[in-house]
Amino acid sequence: MNTKLDFSSVVWNFSLVENNPIYKAFDSKLEYKSKDDLEELSKNLEAQNISNEAKKANSNLKEVFFRDPITNKIVKSALSENTLSILRENFAGVHKTSSNSYILSDKAESFVSAWYADIAYQRGYIKADADSNGFLTKSELDETRSGYMTHGYFGYTGNGVVTAVINLSTESYIKLGGYSTPYASNEANQVFKEDQKTFYNNGKFAKETIALELERTIQSDKDLNGVLEYKELMSFAEMKQQAMDNTEYEAKDFGSFKEFMSYKDFIDFLLKEGLEKLQVLEKLKEKGYESLNKDEKEYLLKTYPNLFNENKEFKKEDFDSFYEDFKTDFVEKSKDFLGLKDDENLDLNFDELSLVMKEIFSNIASVNISNPFYEKRFVDLEV
């Protein structure tokens, strides 16, 4: 359909989606450290390979130091004086140093580091920064999970007059260079940057550095609650533009179907079936086979038949060997997903990473709960 659509008859209403969560901060559980302790740690911060583009992009911001809640290492980022004032007014722990930089501790550190982890790991900035130079090019930004949009239904007449646009759900953490999932389960996945051409092209979804995105995110979180709702990210006019772009994209390809993407093993493990596999295996290891209920035992037999003999009896010795391999594989895949490199001397074990990955995927799932077909989503969260 190539007819220019006429939206003049539409009465716009976003009441069903405007309060939906889009991004959720990582639950930062940093142990308290004093300003002096953090300042001492910041002195030993390893030199980072920051490009001139990144330095220029962040030039109007002030250096800020805080801990990464996943690696527990000191991070050097940047925020504006205005944002630092907001933090100072609402949280304890904003300290200005003699070099005119800032160190965050206490509640201020917890809040900022929680949003940092969302951007760096849940939205995937660190992994997307292929050359690790702190500045993400257009192609690198395409690898981030920064996209979000509304879904629903629309009606139009044969001459291109759109009679209604009904927004029913939101979807977020969409890879910018990937696909979104339509509201109706029988429709094909949508090329996100084509569907959302206006805001993809003007950089609405992602900034070129983590610092710039952190600045924008904190500024958008008006109530400082660690959750960004749709209405905090989009004005009414922008909501309309998103819905119009989506409608035009769907109308153009109405009746056609694109090939669906397939789940990757790790995401099939963590999203398609929730975290059921991980939880059952952990329970089995910790408490033994007899601790499993009937449904869990049936699930285990169906999913891992090699752990049972021909009489369907559980083989503990085989499980112990399997579980050690499973943990090693899980750690490697988790690090790859997060964009963490082995040469960073990170001492992250299975127990720590399983908690991190549960938190991340629970966050991503929780903000997409309004889409009834989210569990069928072919998301680009591959490792």
Molecular structure report:
This protein is of the alpha+beta class and 383 residues long. The chain has 16 helices and 10 strands. It has helices at 35-43, 52-57, 81-90, 106-122, 125-128, 138-141, 192-195, 197-201, 210-220, 230-233, 236-252, 265-272, 276-287, 294-303, 316-338, 350-367; strands at 21-24, 62-67, 74-79, 94-96, 102-104, 147-156, 162-174, 179-180, 190-191, 227-229. Strands 3-2-5-4 form a 4-stranded mixed sheet. It is globular, with a radius of gyration of 23 Å.
Strand order of the largest sheet: 3-2-5-4
Q: List SSEs in N-to-C order.
A: EHHEEHEEHHHEEEEHHHEHHHHHHH
Structural class: alpha+beta
Quaternary class:
single chain
Largest sheet: 4 strands, mixed
Quick one: overall form?
Answer: globular
Low-confidence stretches: 254-268, 375-383
Helix content: 40-55%
In short:
With about 375 residues, this protein is α+β, with helices and mostly antiparallel strands.
Jot down its keywords.
42% helix; two-stranded antiparallel sheet; 383 residues; 4-stranded mixed β-sheet; alpha+beta; 10 strands; single chain
Describe the secondary structure blueprint for this structure.
Layout: E1 21-24, H1 35-43, H2 52-57, E2 62-67, E3 74-79, H3 81-90, E4 94-96, E5 102-104, H4 106-122, H5 125-128, H6 138-141, E6 147-156, E7 162-174, E8 179-180, E9 190-191, H7 192-195, H8 197-201, H9 210-220, E10 227-229, H10 230-233, H11 236-252, H12 265-272, H13 276-287, H14 294-303, H15 316-338, H16 350-367
Parallel strand pairs: 2-5
Antiparallel strand pairs: 1-10, 2-3, 4-5, 6-7, 8-9
Helix pairs in contact: 4-9, 15-16
